[in-house]
């Protein structure tokens, strides 16, 4: 299956971000991609953390969700919709949700980010728990015969999440993200390649990449990584595509010559 990461440099304006997403979806579909993914916070990189509350939608209905469903159906693609804020049970909180639509525009999966990012190096500080409510359920779905596991950004640092997704083994792991420039430069590729190697499957990592209007700089480097840990495609910064293939023949060769998944004891 041909797959594509749709890298963005999202703004505080939802409509502008949706226009960019539509353009990238069309571009990827025209280039032959069958499964496409948008980055974390594709719809809004706000001026304040609580801007997410202002645009939060109810589960299953809202202009952002409707736009993605329409785009999936129009182009006949599997669309992993990055993340968008969905209303949480806790007042004043939202879930950072990754929703997936099939080529008919029907929603087939929703994963809520489990691990909430916090970072403070004296110059930069973030704490997602100020406005986010954590999820608690792992999610995988079937797309054209492939088992696809979902995760979001900071989840990448927790290999046990991916190990749990490998029952049964996934063929593809998707990681929408908005890594900071600092943490991305240090750890992004290292962690992604490790997840591909230890789980012997393709990883589609789709990032925010550049200097945002709110002053934040994200690392970018959206990637497609094969089951041996080789990088098929990478886009350093700016909006655009990183495109590659999920090859079952490659998966089978890797798992046959080094049957690490079969050797698991824990």
Automatic annotation (TrEMBL):
Domain CN hydrolase span(s) in chain numbering: 1-248
Residue ranges of the TM segments: none
Name this polypeptide is given: Carbon-nitrogen hydrolase family protein
Residue ranges of coiled coil: none
Gene Ontology molecular function: hydrolase activity
UniProt keyword annotations, A-Z: Hydrolase
Keyword GTP-binding set for record: no
Pfam families per the UniProt record, alphabetical: CN_hydrolase
Stored InterPro entries: C-N_Hydrolase, C-N_Hydrolase_sf, Nit1/2_C-N_Hydrolase
Gene3D superfamilies for this protein: Carbon-nitrogen hydrolase
Organism this protein belongs to: Ideonella margarita
